[in-house]
Amino acid sequence: MARMKTLLGATIAVAGLAVASTAAKADGELFIYNWTDYTSPELIEKFEKETGINVTLDIYDSSETLLAKLQSGATGYDIVVPGHAFLPIMIEEGLVQEIDVASLKGYENLEERWRNPDWDPEGRYSVPWQWGTTSFMADTALYDGPIDTLETLFEPPPAYQGSIAMFRAPSEVIGLALIYLDKPQCNDNVEDMREVQKLLLEQRPHVKIYNSDGILERLVSGDTAMHMIWNGYAMRAREQKPTLKYAMPKEGILGWMDVMVVPSGAKNRDNAIRFLEFMLQPENMAIQSNFARYANAVKGSQEFMDEDLRSAPELNVPEDVEVIFPWACGEESIRLYDRVWTRVLQ
Amino acid sequence: MTADAGNVATSKAAAAARRRTRAPFVTGEYPGFRFFTIVFFFFLYAPILVLIVYSFNDNRSATLWTEFSIDWYIRAFNNDDIRRAALNSLTIALVAASAATVIATLAALILVRGGRFPGHSLAYGLISLPLMVPEIVTAVATLSFFAAIGLSLGLGNVIIAHTVFCIPFAYMPIQARLSDMDTTFEQAAQDLYANDWNAFRHVTLPLMMPGIVAGAMLAFIISIDDVIITLMVAGAGSTTLPVYIYGMVRMGVTPEVNAVSTVLLAISILFVSLSWMINRRR
Amino acid sequence: MSALPQSSALRRMAGLMPALLVIGIFMLGPLCIIAAYSFMEASPYGGVRPEFSFGAYRQFLFDLDLDDSLIFNPAYLNIVARSVVLAVAATSLSLVLGFPAAYYIATRPPHWRTVLLLLVTIPFWTNLLIRTFAWILILRDDGLINSVLMWLGATDAPLRLLYTDGAIAVGLIYSYLPFMVLPIYASLEKIDMRLVEAAHDLHANRLQAMWRVILPLAKPGIIAGSILVFIPSLGAFIAPDLLGGGRRLMIGSLIHMQFSSSRNWPFGSAVAMILLAVVLVLMLVYARNAGRGRGEAAR
User: Fold this and answer.
1) B16-20, B38-42, C194-198: which range is least confident on average?
2) Same domain membership, residue B263 and residue B167
3) Tell me, what's the pLDDT at A121?
4) Partners for B (CB, 8 Å, 3+ pairs)?
5) CA dihedral over C19, C24, C30, C35, signed as positive or negative
6) B72-91 residues touching C, CB cutoff 8 A
7) pLDDT value at position B105?
8) What is the enclosing helix (H) or strand (E) of C72?
9) CA nearest C25: which of B108, B149, B222?
């Protein structure tokens, strides 16, 4: 009994301590919400040293989680990093605040083509973090033919049949299928989606696994010979197994841009602004790209980037390949996507 | 039965013969079970051994071996985020499991030993409820609920949510322990003029202890492994280790996680050895 | 009953209050929200629109044809059936593997018991995702098992172990084994070996002693353990997705998808409510029967 009491006492003390340590923080704080290993520790250290602001990094697993949490209103984050497709939703729902990007110190470093993107046409809410593409990667040791077409993925040659892996979530799978079929993204046309369904059902017997975890391991171990993948991740896989090649399909490629925004009700708006300005400096953004291995939108950051990153084929999209940034889809197309996906995995 | 009774002598002799030829007959010993238990523990620990081996992997990937290295340990120790996440996980699991075990013990005493009363099944159903709702649903619902009532206690939110779903896991073993346990000891204690509290403390509680210990352990491991509910209800600064790991999907899981897991494992083994030594001395 | 001789109603209230309060507020409250969601319409951005609708429940059984007529669609029922079969398999296999271990642990000297019990739970301090990754390493074509088999010359080509139903079962058992072992241990630990001895004195062999004496005494633990393995297995998706290849949806994935990529909270809520109703009815039936059984035994 006495032991139990001490244990209980100790537990309460630990809990008290933990609550106190989160409550004691007031100013000089910045709470960032991002993916794991997607923020360079070196970068955070540099920012803390330069500004004296104490940064706390929290983790989420998907943009949907982020959206649901922001919608509930119970957060406390100062910088969040959603995918571009989610930004229009967040703006419409009033979840992010205006920051007037043009007035930020270092705005001139932002590449022109990212200053007024479709998802934030007046440049009022977001600063680009990292961007990349979604395509597939194949082991060229097994197949001589060209892989610069989505046909390789959706109507695979015998060499890849039975060892293909696709993502778990429907949006990007269907997105690529729509590119291949030359149909518009976020499609709500029943006939178009019927074609998508037919394509995916015909591809299904050749698919070994539908999953987005542990992609690198499956590719490098040879468990799967062809895998849907993001470009920065693909680069890591190629470094481990040089015969792996990231495809730049001539039909087009899916693009995504993760953007930094300040949620409504952020407690440390000023610190968040300082962080955004810090990230607009080429040498800082380069630290981030070197760590996460994705491209950024800051001019001059190339100079500070690792050589292998600058010359990486995964990061340099050929000029004749169109990068398509799909929109946050409307209700009708989301329903159709869901139906197609349920049929495919039935 | 009558035939058996008639054959007492012969079967006694047969049993004696059995004893001579086979392993010594110990009441309640099942010789195959020992082997089975070894297989059982092998099954439990094989993946854990693999995981430990790969924590010493030089490669960035958690499943592709290149060469020996302790880099991931150094990185893990220098990684504030992962350390904070591990500490958060332990704190939440300790507090939530303790709270859930106390609550479950009280409830089990009433529901199992308190006789039938109106609403008995309902109370039982209510206690098992957190078990029956899929995690993602609980997560989204609790998020909406906390927001609706304006509850924002940082780590406190997570602890409350964890306590709720730990209760049935703590309750089930305690219930299993208590049911069919006879009450003669307590009656004897009461006959000896022990008051209710003393009878409970010195008789009932020690009898319940194995169930309570089992329940507390289950609650602890269910809490320390939870990710979906934590992801949704956690406020700023309450990232836990599982959440940290799930966020790696985009960039790939690294052996850093294996290293942290191994350290946690080493700590827990240390505790086990200590408890074994203390118990043996007594 | 004798354990609570006086003012039992009052005591009952006091003992149950914490559990009922905590679950009543923090579980029933959220559950009411979910029940409400299941009768609403989905908002395109996730979340719900507060308009009353049976649509979510209709979707579970029927498809809307192009001309708005209803067609029966067994897809979701198939998913439920598949998940139930898998959960039953995982539960029975956990019982077969867990019972001997629980019994062995319960019959050790006291200072060993807690240690062995802790050893059962220690692997579960490690995250489920990481443990599942370790299984991939063991099961895949160039994995541990296949390497050993080929080294022994037992097989020339690697056996297909990963991405099979067997792999899913292994993963599920491995996820939930302690939930079976610990409750069984808790109920076995109290067995008085003199009862087993008495059985042997009555010429029961080991098997009969197990069947007639030990198993009935372990029944509460077996039931508790089965509940704790069955229900989480039903909603599991990490093992099916990673070890099974995720080529066929499980109910856990289906519900998860509705709250994430498909952004259909009402349908996710409705499926969860259906699942809850089924499990709740089963549990209440069990609770009633168990209660009646006890009552008869007392008489």
Assistant:
1) B16-20
2) yes
3) 92
4) A, C
5) positive
6) none
7) 94
8) strand C70-72
9) B149
Interchain CB distance below 8 Å, C224 and B172? yes
Chains adjacent to C (≥3 CB pairs closer than 8 angstroms): A, B
Of the CA atoms within 13 Å of residue A41, those in its CB half-sphere come to 9
Could you give the CA distance from residue A101 to residue B250 in angstroms, rounded to a whole number? 27
- Mutation for C interface: A213, A333, A336, most C CBs within 10 A: A213
Q: Flag whether pLDDT at A39 surpasses 50.
A: yes
Chains touching A, CB cut-off 8 Å, 3+ pairs: B, C
Residues from A in contact with C at Cβ < 8 Å: 62, 64-65, 67-68, 71, 89, 92-93, 168-171, 190, 204, 207-211, 213-214, 217, 221-223, 328, 330-331, 334-335, 337-338, 341-343, 345-346
The pLDDT of residue B20: 44
Give me the interface pTM, i.e. the ipTM: 0.84
- Which residues in chain B are contacts of C120 at CB distance < 8 A? 44
For residue A340, pLDDT beyond 70: yes
> For chain B, where are the alpha helices, taking DSSP H only?
2-6, 8-21, 31-55, 71-78, 80-113, 120-132, 135-149, 155-178, 184-191, 196-199, 205-224, 228-233, 241-246, 255-281
Tokens for C30?
Answer: 């959220």
Contact A329, A172 (CB under 8 A): no
Mean of pLDDT values over A73-100 = 90
* Residue A13: inside a domain: no
CA distance A134 to A227: 11
Range from A35-39, A237-241, C94-98, C215-219 carrying the lowest mean pLDDT: A35-39
A71 and C46: CB-CB below 8 Å? yes
What's the domain range around A286?
Answer: 28-131+256-310
Q: What is the 3-state secondary structure (H, E, C) of B163-196?
A: HHHHHHHHHHHHHHHHCCCCCHHHHHHHHCCCCH
Tokens of C40: 């609403």
pLDDT band for position A273 (50/70/90)? very high
Per the CB < 8 Å rule, is A341 touching C133? no
Are B128 and B165 in contact by the 8 Å Cβ rule? The answer is no
* Among C166, C168, C284, C179, residue whose Cα is nearest residue C229: C179
Cβ distance of A68 and C46 shorter than 8 Å: yes
pLDDT tens-digit readout, B194-224: 677 787 888 888 888 889 999 999 999 999 9
B131 and B40 belong to one structural domain: no
A33 to chain B: which residues are within 8 Å by CB?
A: 236
CB contact under 8 A, C249 and A346: yes
Mean of per-residue pLDDT scores for chain B: 83
Q: What is the pLDDT of residue C291?
A: 56
What residue in A sits closest to C140 (Cα-Cα)? A223
Q: Which long-range contacts (CB under 8 A, 24 or more apart) does A187-192 make?
A: A187/A333, A187/A336, A188/A330, A188/A332, A188/A333, A188/A336, A190/A336, A190/C66
The answer to whether residues B243 and B130 belong to one domain is yes
pLDDT tens profile A119-168 = 999 999 999 999 999 999 999 999 999 999 999 999 999 999 999 999 98
Element (H, E) at A230: strand A226-230
* B160 touching chain C per CB within 8 A: yes
**Domain assignment present for A4:** no
**Which fold is adopted by the domain C74-263?**
MetI-like fold (1.10.3720)
Range of the domain at B12: 2-44
Q: What is the number of CB-based contacts under 8 A between chain A and chain B?
A: 140
Between CA C263 and CA C49 the distance in angstroms is 12
Q: What is the pLDDT of residues B159-190, one digit of tens each?
A: 999 999 999 999 999 998 888 666 676 677 76
Indicate yes or no: CB of C247 within 8 angstroms of CB of A64: no
Q: Are residues A206 and A340 in the same domain?
A: yes
Is the pLDDT at B18 greater than 90? The verdict is no
Tell me C158's DSSP state.
P
